[in-house]
Amino acid sequence: AILPALSYISQNYMEDITVDQLSEMCFLSTTYFRRVFKRCTRLSPMAYLCQVRLKMAAVMLRSSNAPISEIVEKTGFRTASSFNRKFREYYNMSPREWRQSL
C-alpha cells in the first residue's frame, strides 16, 4: 500500500515532501497512511525521509569532496544546523568527523 510513497521518497528525497503528498499517491487518508507507514517501516513518514536524506548525505560525504554546505542543499535539508544536528543524532559524529574517519 505504501510502495508508491517509498519509491517517490527514494527518487525525490532532495525536494520538499509532505505527508499529504505521499498519502495522496497511495490513495489513503493521511491518518491511515501514517498508521500503515509506521507499521511497515517502524518510522513515521518524515523520520523515514530524514533517514534517507542522512544516508544519501553519508554516501556523498564519502564519495566526493563537495563542501558540506553543498551536500546539505543536495539532500533536501533546509539549514546546515538542522542537518548537522540530525547527522550527529544518527551517526554519533559530525559530518566533518564522518568524512575524516574514512
Please give the structural blueprint.
Elements: H1 3-12, H2 19-25, H3 30-41, H4 45-63, H5 68-74, H6 80-91, H7 95-100
Query: Beta fraction of the residues?
Result: under 5%
Q: How many strand elements?
A: 0
Q: Element order, helices and strands?
A: HHHHHHH
Radius of gyration: 15 Å
Please state the oligomeric state of the protein chains shown.
single chain
- What sort of overall outline do the alpha carbons produce when their principal axes are compared? elongated
Number of helices: 7
Largest sheet report: none
What is the distance, rounded to the nearest whole angstrom, between the alpha carbons of the first and last residues?
38 Å
Average pLDDT for all residues: 93
Structural class label: mainly alpha
Question: Low-confidence spans: pLDDT under 50, at least 5 residues?
Answer: none
* Helical residues, percent: over 70%
Q: Please, could you describe this protein's structure?
A:
The structure is a single chain. α2 (19-25) crosses α3. The longest helix has 19 residues, at 45-63. By secondary structure, this protein is an all-alpha fold. The protein is built from 7 helices and no strands.
Give short descriptive properties of this protein.
102 residues; mainly alpha; 72% helix
What can be said about this structure in brief?
The chain has helices spanning 3-12, 19-25, 30-41, 45-63, 68-74, 80-91, 95-100. With 102 residues, it is mainly alpha-helical.
